[in-house]
Amino acid sequence: MKKRIWIPIVGVLVLLAVLFVPIPQSPYDDGGTREYIALTYKIVDWNRLTDFGDGPALYENTSFYGFADRNTSIDELWKRESAKLGSRNEVCIEEWIEKSDRTRCEDDMIGHVRITAVSENCFFAEPVISMPYQIKLNGELSTEWCIGDQVFVTCENLYYDEQTNRIEADVLTVEPSYFKPEEAVEYKPVIYLYPEQETEVSVKLTLDGKFLCTYPKYQNGWQVTASPDGTLTDARGQTYNYLYWEGTTYAEYDLTEGFCVKGEDTAVFLESALAALGLNRREANEFIVYWLPLMEGNPYNIIAFQTDIYTNAAKLEVTPAPDTVIRVFMAWQAAEDYVTLEEQTLTAPERTGFTVVEWGGTEIR
């Protein structure tokens, strides 16, 4: 009888040992960091040579990671660990944006962000939706918040510099955020105007959604003087290379036809695709410089250029009527593995007469 009682007890002890006893792994050559892995968690004993700005030093700490991070790579865990090293004692950067010639945007443009750095009188963040913006938020951050936290921010006095993709605003409130992107967001569509001679042009955009930011300011449309080289001049005499807008729509984009491209091959693919779609070198260069940082690091990118779905969600009206209209809009999605798609045929009209060109895109999650 006693033997029978001990059998299940031993079995339970063995099971607990398998689940909860960590097994030491070989140390890394980064300074001696070592992982201790159990089936239900992982412990990392950090001993990592790094540079905190004043020369190499050994970072030593012990961190516990739950089941969700048991198989997370040591490099990814180090990104999180190093993010915790930000200081609250640095003086905030004063000259972040020169506001005198930057566009004033809607104060609800920021919303859900992830904190990336904290200083004594401001903090920095990145959008939860993957975008190349750098955000500086003026105001002291409560000690309840840490680097890496996802928060919802309300603000005022928001400015955007489209040359550097920098945003600056004054913080009103900071609250916890559990947002996951769903709604389609049209990122940085820009509109070029090329008349045959200097022309007064009116541009109106009817959006199935709402604008987040426009530059120059959209006031029931844009009124500009357009030159053949594409230079645009407003009533104040300010010049622009293009009309910029960004907003949300409820369009449901189609990824059933398109291309699956290795991340490292994205630049070459876009050069070829954009040429086939009618963009000139300058336009294609500005498109690629904006999107490539978000795409080239992915294993693969599923890319589909949208037509009616996009143009119906963002209807464009130009007066006087152009002879040629080229609207290029890319919907894309990161992928871990290659996906077989029916390949799109890419064509473009011949650029003749007064030509209007627009490009933009959105990441599908």
Kindly describe this structure.
The protein has five helices and 23 strands. The chain has helices at 2-20, 74-83, 266-276, 281-295, 308-313; strands at 23-24, 34-37, 42-51, 56-65, 103-104, 111-118, 122-127, 134-138, 150-161, 166-176, 184-194, 199-207, 209-215, 222-226, 232-233, 239-240, 243-249, 257-262, 300-306, 314-319, 324-335, 342-343, 355-363. Strands 13-17-11-23-21-19-18-22 form an eight-stranded mixed beta sheet. It has a five-stranded mixed β-barrel with strand order 6-7-8-10-9. The model is unreliable at 51-56 (pLDDT under 50).
Q: What characteristics describe this protein?
A:
5 helices, alpha+beta, OB fold (Dihydrolipoamide Acetyltransferase, E2P), 365 residues, eight-stranded mixed sheet, globular
Radius of gyration: 26 Å
Low-confidence segments, given as residue ranges, are: 51-56
Count of runs of 4 or more consecutive helical residues:
5
Count of separate structural domains: 3
State the separation between the terminal residues, measured CA to CA: 60 Å
Looking at the structure, what is the overall shape?
globular
Which range does the strand content fall in? 35-45%
The computed structural class is alpha+beta
Q: Secondary-structure element order, as H and E?
A: HEEEEHEEEEEEEEEEEEEEHHEHEEEE
Q: Return the average pLDDT rounded to an integer.
A: 82
Spatial arrangement of strands, main beta sheet: 13-17-11-23-21-19-18-22
Helix content: 10-25%
